[in-house]
Design brief:
heterodimer, A: disordered N terminus, B: four-stranded antiparallel β-sheet
């Protein structure tokens, strides 16, 4: 059983039918997120119904894991490889933060608008701590959906290679349209995080890194350049 | 097969959810209960307008906007007495009439449209719905 699990964990290649189904799963989950971002946001704005709109997708992801025999550990909800994953993420994060600082400096010279984070800090330490917790929780959820689900399904189709990483990066980028800077950033982040996940699957480490990058991004780049982190239909509002 | 069925079920749930959302959003934004009439006579655009969703115990006067040749000209509320409308069973009370004084216009053909204003989402959004049909009229030299 252990040998089978390990094989499934490292190389989840399956039959042609399974690969076709995996592709449909990726398309379906990405479509659900797009529906929430574009259609639900346009019709009712944000709020409870927006959250409710992704519940079928969330339920499906859980059912899919069960149907494919993927345990929490296999998906990446584990702590044994946490520090290994953090070690692998350290260099890309440092490079990204340095790039944010550099781009931020250049853009601040061109346009002295404050960064998004200044608005965040204004509300006091407790509110800021709550906000950090929210950003981290949201980052964990995104990494689970992107790596724990989409990356794993992409691996079923193509295995651990650049094609499956391209699918992960593209799916993540599409969800950040029409915000061009965020789309570009998430395409790169999706590929790099996807690569780390394929080597060392750990959602906690990826979620933490995702949250740190988000905080670094909003602390360095001017608000106008990021368009207030708005994506989907809300980008225009 | 099980996974494919779940995928189909998920898609059906999402489609039904979206359809329900579209209908509710449309209903809230474009209140489908405005009725009324508009006509041109003696330098006025006048008529009546009611919100059929309003009850007799909580009558609501309809807010109206007049557009002439596509431009907003005036706003008013349909709260003038029109007992004839009530007598025909189209209004819960007598106070559903309105009249707009037509401003000076160049001689020739013009088009007036009277719109009912509807607020939704706690006044965050306002939509306009035309009362009856566009009113075509002539201004003589």
């Amino acid at each position: 059983v252990n040998a089978t699990n390990e094989l499934h964990e490292t190389s989840p290649r399956e039959t042609k039918d399974s690969r076709t189904l995996a592709m449909w799963e990726i398309i379906s989950i990405t479509a659900s997120a797009l529906i929430a971002e574009w259609a639900v946001a346009a019709l009712i704005g944000s709020g409870f119904l927006m959250l409710a709109s992704i519940l079928p997708a969330f339920a499906f992801m859980i059912l899919s894991h069960r149907a494919r025999g993927e345990s929490l550990r296999v998906i990446g909800w584990r702590i044994d490889n946490f520090f290994k994953a953090i070690k692998e993420l350290a260099l890309p994060i440092l490079i990204a933060v340095a790039a944010f600082l550099l781009i931020g400096q250049i853009l601040h010279r061109l346009d002295a608008n404050y960064a998004v984070s200044e608005k965040w800090w204004r509300n006091g330490a407790q509110a800021t701590a709550f906000l950090f917790a929210r950003v981290t929780a949201w980052a964990l959820f995104q990494e689970y959906a992107l790596q724990g689900f989409i990356n794993r399904r992409a691996q079923i189709i193509y295995g651990k290679n650049w094609r499956s990483l391209l699918i992960v990066g593209t799916a993540f980028a599409i969800l950040h349209l029409p915000n061009v800077p965020l789309t570009a950033a998430t395409f790169c982040a999706g590929i790099i995080f996807g690569y780390v996940y394929q080597r060392t699957p750990n959602i906690f480490a990826l979620g933490l890194a995702h949250a740190l990058l988000t905080i670094a991004l909003v602390s360095t780049i001017p608000i106008n350049a990021l368009h207030d982190l708005r994506v989907g239909y809300k980008f225009f509002g | 097969v099980k996974l494919a069925n779940w995928l189909i079920a998920k898609s059906i749930i999402e489609i039904l959810f979206l359809i329900a959302l579209v209908v509710v959003a449309q209903y809230r934004a474009f209140h489908p209960y405005f009725r009324g009439d508009a006509e041109f006579a003696a330098g006025y655009i006048a008529g009546w307008a009611v919100d059929e969703a309003a009850s007799a115990s909580h009558p609501r006067s309809v807010e109206l906007q007049l557009y002439i040749d596509g431009k907003l000209v005036a706003t008013t509320v349909a709260d003038k007495p029109r007992p004839d409308v009530r007598a025909h069973g189209r209004s819960q009370d007598d106070f559903c009439g309105y009249s707009f004084l037509v401003p000076p216009l160049s001689p020739g053909a013009h088009e007036a449209r009277v719109y009912a204003v509807h607020s939704s989402d706690g006044d965050a959004r306002k939509t306009l719905q035309m009362i009856n049909h566009p009113v075509l009229f002539q201004i003589e030299k």
